[in-house]
Amino acid sequence: MLRITGNIVIPDSELELGAIRSQGAGGQNVNKVASAIHLRFNIPSSSLPEAVKQQLMQLNDRRISGDGVLVIKAQRFRTQEKNRADALSRLQSLVRSVLVTRRKRVPTRATAASRARRLDSKTRRGQHKRLRGKVTGEE
What we know:
By secondary structure, the protein is α+β, with helices and mostly antiparallel strands. It has a single domain (about 1-100), classed as Double Stranded RNA Binding Domain, CATH 3.30.160. Helix content is about 35%, strand content about 15%. It is built from three helices and five strands; from the N terminus they run E-E-E-E-H-E-H-H. The protein has helices spanning about 50-60, 80-100, 110-130; strands spanning about 1-5, 10, 15-20, 35-40, 70-75. It starts with a strand and ends in a 9-residue tail after the last helix. The relative contact order is 0.14.
């Protein structure tokens, strides 16, 4: 079982872990050993609370397919056990990130003095640009 919080747990039966060959450098070992891990987690059919499922489905994450299957590929380490632990911790952190409720932003108003300073600087800048015009007069 993968413990997300004190009361949210993902049973092992909902996780599909598969070993695949890792990409990239690794010497002779890379072609023989399946050390990378593919973790597949079906969000809609999971035992997570409905609110958490909705939040996960609304994420703009390319690892989540259209039908709600989250695929995590872990190949950072050379051993299968470390990659399995890495994939599980990445799933855990993704679900925990959804549980954090963000505070609503309260817009602030600009002070009267700052508005006056802004308008004053705009006026001064306009006068400065006006002086760049053609010089008319007698020579």
